[in-house]
Amino acid sequence: MEVATKNHAELADIFNKDEDRVDWHDETLWWIRAKRDKSVHQLPEWEALREAASNIKFNVLSNLDIYLAQFEAAAKANGITVHWAADAQEHNEIVHGLLKEAKVTQMVKSKSMLTEECHLNDYLATHGIEVIDSDLGERIVQLAGEAPSHIVLPCIHKKKEEIGDLFHMYLGTPSNMSDPQFLTETARGSLRETFLTRKVALTGVNFAIAETGEFVVCTNEGNADMGAHLADVHIACMGIEKLIPNRDHLGVFLRLLTRSATGQPITTYSSHFKKPREGQEMHIVLVDNGRSVQLGREDFRNSLKCIRCGACMNTCPVYRRSGGHSYHTAVAGPIGSILAPNLDMRKYADLPFASTLCGSCSNVCPVKIDIHDQLYKWRQVLVKEGYTPKAKTVAMHVMATTLGSSTLYHAAGKMGRLTIKYAPFAVNNKLNPWYKNRDMPEAPKESFGEWYAKNRKK
Amino acid sequence: MRVGLFVPCYVDQFYPGAAIATLQLLEKLGVDVVYPKNQTCCGQPMANSGYEHLTGGCNKLFIENFQGYDYIVSPSGSCVLHIREHLHDDKQPELAKQVAHQVWELTSFLTDVLKVESLPSRFPHKVGVHQSCHGQRGLHLSSMTELVAPDFSKPGSLLNMVKDLELVELDRKDECCGFGGTFCVVEEAVSSKMGKDRVADHLKQGAEYITGADMSCLMHMEGILKRQGSNVKVLHIAEILNSEG
Ligand code: SF4
């Protein structure tokens, strides 16, 4: 894909060519963030809940091996078949194997960012298997041939008119229909057909409970239930960090998840799956794909606490104005920018720099991940590992030398001010990215240091 | 009480007015202020770009210049945050730690250390406050909209002591302006757009001046205001608190 060859700044620059769209994208997501603020302020215990969730996850990460073994044993006892996948490739092969066993060439899938991370749809397509995404937003991007641009709101970058056009093209609706009610009904009708004819359904997992070997899938549309209940084979795929120790802990997370995501008090459907019903097969695939490496990186370990609520994206002023696709990775936004370099430092070296480090992400995060601090830390790692443009490194060395010496600093300062004053064209030109949309500060006749020397004889 | 005045490099070079106001304000409040003349930069521009390992020279200079004061005060939240979090020196780790803990951002120094309750200043204008992220979220200069916690603002309560000043309410109380150090050039498109949006909020509320506790964000917004040909001005909060209008 062309997308992967450009970095965040370039992709965001393209997105910003259409300022009306940027405004609309920003305002839509800001509205969701405002809804989140309103709903969390109704809970005086909100910060205590965050603290609890963070501690529960900390315990999970510290004892992941034990909880995984406990979960596997309990799930098996419930009659679920447990599979382990070291990476994306293994995950895809396991799912493909199960489809072959069931002798099907079609599958219905409800939302799972893990399968996006593993590029499951593409993999299965090359093996002649058609996947229909049943989450409405995912179905829309699937029809458009795009990846989701947000982990909770996959088609947040699309206006309803554009969705109307897609439905006209693929689902036979009349042209120029953009009424959300009408479009939703149409999608439902077409998906119902899919649900009734698919023998295999794949779902994601929001929480897996070590104690009982069961798992919970949260959706607002009930599409996971529809798929799983009508299919003969239910495959659930989860990253190994999705565990929580006990059922008791679930209440903490369910209260945090949707308030953080959309401002709703709770998800419409929180479906518990414990064992296959009579005649059904239930499989769970536990996927590592870089997670144990991240667990071993002390500075970045906390990123595995993430429950994928998307709050950090909604609040991120950069995400809102650059669009999810500019992050060129499955999980966009602030959290994606600390997860992606773990998978491939070279490919995602740009992402930790796509932030002003404003810190809003860390404040909204329901499990208190120190997101902006981790972005700062990734920058240090990426520079040390050599993933920065040469020119930048040279400039930084010059800067460090100048600023590390009082004499050089004063000389350079004077020169800088003189340049701005007497030769503004030297800085106010197209090669200076600052000048594209902003004027330079005016050069004062003297620095504070010079003023002080004259005015305060101490 | 002896206070070392820490004037960040770009304030020294481009906004001496903010530093003069800081100095005069502190003197007015009876503080013995000294400006160590060999100071340069806190090192943040390198550190935030991933080159923290090149900040040794800046760290050494900072410690040399600022050891021995009771407090170190600066009109810049983000430089203060950088020093507090990252100042270190392998040869004298204890001293570095001690110096780092003595650094205060101006408005929190006025509020928490000097416990200022009134000011002799007057500024008869409509003013919008920009809550800079590093000061607000990093140094807790004011409450944050994301957290469920009591409302407060150190810059806000100081401005409320200024006679005839009218504070405007923003639609987005604490959105980032998009400056972000080298972010402003590396991510030019998003940075400019963020700045434009931030400025638009102030303009919409009828602000005549935009102020804040961090000159770098103000410099960014000033660049945008000037490009738009606006009459709205930016002023560092010290300049308003120090004005006698
Ligand atoms: S990092 Fe935190 S805020 Fe972002 S998606 Fe994960 S849990 Fe939600």
Automatic annotation (TrEMBL), chain A:
<dbReference type="InterPro" id="IPR017900">
    <property type="entry name" value="4Fe4S_Fe_S_CS"/>
</dbReference>
<keyword id="KW-0249">Electron transport</keyword>
<dbReference type="InterPro" id="IPR003741">
    <property type="entry name" value="LUD_dom"/>
</dbReference>
<dbReference type="InterPro" id="IPR037171">
    <property type="entry name" value="NagB/RpiA_transferase-like"/>
</dbReference>
<keyword id="KW-0677">Repeat</keyword>
<keyword id="KW-0408">Iron</keyword>
<keyword id="KW-0479">Metal-binding</keyword>
<dbReference type="Pfam" id="PF13183">
    <property type="entry name" value="Fer4_8"/>
</dbReference>
<dbReference type="InterPro" id="IPR024185">
    <property type="entry name" value="FTHF_cligase-like_sf"/>
</dbReference>
<dbReference type="Pfam" id="PF11870">
    <property type="entry name" value="LutB_C"/>
</dbReference>
<feature type="domain" description="4Fe-4S ferredoxin-type">
    <location>
        <begin position="296"/>
        <end position="326"/>
    </location>
</feature>
<dbReference type="InterPro" id="IPR024569">
    <property type="entry name" value="LutB_C"/>
</dbReference>
<dbReference type="InterPro" id="IPR004452">
    <property type="entry name" value="LutB/LldF"/>
</dbReference>
<keyword id="KW-0004">4Fe-4S</keyword>
<keyword id="KW-0813">Transport</keyword>
<keyword id="KW-0411">Iron-sulfur</keyword>
<dbReference type="InterPro" id="IPR017896">
    <property type="entry name" value="4Fe4S_Fe-S-bd"/>
</dbReference>
<dbReference type="InterPro" id="IPR009051">
    <property type="entry name" value="Helical_ferredxn"/>
</dbReference>
<dbReference type="Pfam" id="PF02589">
    <property type="entry name" value="LUD_dom"/>
</dbReference>
<protein>
    <submittedName>
        <fullName>L-lactate dehydrogenase complex protein LldF</fullName>
    </submittedName>
</protein>
TrEMBL record, chain B:
<feature type="domain" description="Cysteine-rich">
    <location>
        <begin position="3"/>
        <end position="84"/>
    </location>
</feature>
<feature type="domain" description="Cysteine-rich">
    <location>
        <begin position="127"/>
        <end position="221"/>
    </location>
</feature>
<dbReference type="Pfam" id="PF02754">
    <property type="entry name" value="CCG"/>
</dbReference>
<dbReference type="InterPro" id="IPR004017">
    <property type="entry name" value="Cys_rich_dom"/>
</dbReference>
<protein>
    <submittedName>
        <fullName>L-lactate dehydrogenase complex protein LldE</fullName>
    </submittedName>
</protein>
